[in-house]
Amino acid sequence: MRVLEERIREEGLILSETVLKVDSFLNHQVDTELALQIGQEFKTVFGHLPITKILTVEASGIQFAMAAGIALGVPFIYAKKKKAVTLSEGVYSAPVHSFTRQEDYLISISQKYLGPEDKVLIVDDFLATGAALVGLADIVKESGAQLLGVGCVIEKSFQEGRSLLEKRGIPVHALARISSMAPGEIHFIANEEQ
Ligand code: 5GP
């Protein structure tokens, strides 16, 4: 997605060899117009599939799951990271190791909102180690729903996330695929539709 790659080049801050900060338009302040365009792009890629629910993890996937949900006309669910008192019974849970925070946490979704009748698209902001998305994929499996694909806004292709998901037979599409990055220099892998 060219407009996204341009913004990453213009505004992305490379914090280390593996961490990209995009807080000015994606992760902290959110460019709402761009977020909606991202949702439309997910529709272009996945719209032919019979998706009934979008799934993401709080907090940074929410705006893109919502944009995809609006574009596809389906609800989205975000997995919660803290065990809320309101989410005490009937939950699907999976452990996740956080790449950015270097800690383990549990993600949970109420069993009320996901079941064998659902066909799911997982959406997230970054595909890095894939830990968060594998956790979500485990939850989808536990629920008996069918996982149709994973859509990510930014993929860091030099990390193992994509291969981890593809090994499980999950189709993955990322809107911007970074092959390498260093201060002042970001390289992208071209997507077929560009
Ligand atoms: P994972 O390693 O599980 O694929 O990534 C989990 C989460 O860590 C992503 O959804 C994203 O929120 C965060 N993350 C991973 N890599 C980066 C990065 O380079 N920059 C930012 N801002 N967040 C990241």
Offer a concise description of the structure.
Helices cover 31% and strands 34% of the residues. It has 194 residues and is of the alpha/beta class.
Give a written overview of the molecule.
Keywords: Cytoplasm, Glycosyltransferase, Purine salvage, Transferase. It catalyses: XMP + diphosphate = xanthine + 5-phospho-alpha-D-ribose 1-diphosphate. Converts the preformed base xanthine, a product of nucleic acid breakdown, to xanthosine 5'-monophosphate (XMP), so it can be reused for RNA or DNA synthesis. Pfam families: Pribosyltran. Its main location: cytoplasm. The chain is built from 6 helices and 10 strands; from the N terminus they run H-E-E-H-H-E-H-E-E-E-E-H-E-H-E-E. 40% of the residues are buried. It is of the alpha/beta class. The protein starts with a helix and ends in a 5-residue tail after the last strand. The chain has a single domain, classed as Rossmann fold (3-Layer(aba) Sandwich). The chain is 31% helix and 34% strand. The chain has a 6-stranded mixed β-sheet, sandwiched between helices. A two-stranded antiparallel ribbon has the order 1-2. The protein binds guanosine-5'-monophosphate. Residues 19-22, 27, 60, 99-100, 124-132, 161 line the site of guanosine-5'-monophosphate.
Secondary-structure topology with pairs:
Elements: H1 2-11, E1 13-14, E2 20-21, H2 23-27, H3 32-46, E3 53-57, H4 62-72, E4 76-79, E5 91-98, E6 103-110, E7 119-127, H5 131-143, E8 146-156, H6 161-167, E9 172-182, E10 185-189
Parallel strand pairs: 3-4, 3-7, 7-8, 8-9
Antiparallel strand pairs: 1-2, 5-6, 9-10
Helix pairs in contact: 3-4
The protein binds guanosine-5'-monophosphate.
Guanosine-5'-monophosphate (5GP) binds near residues 19, 20 and 27.
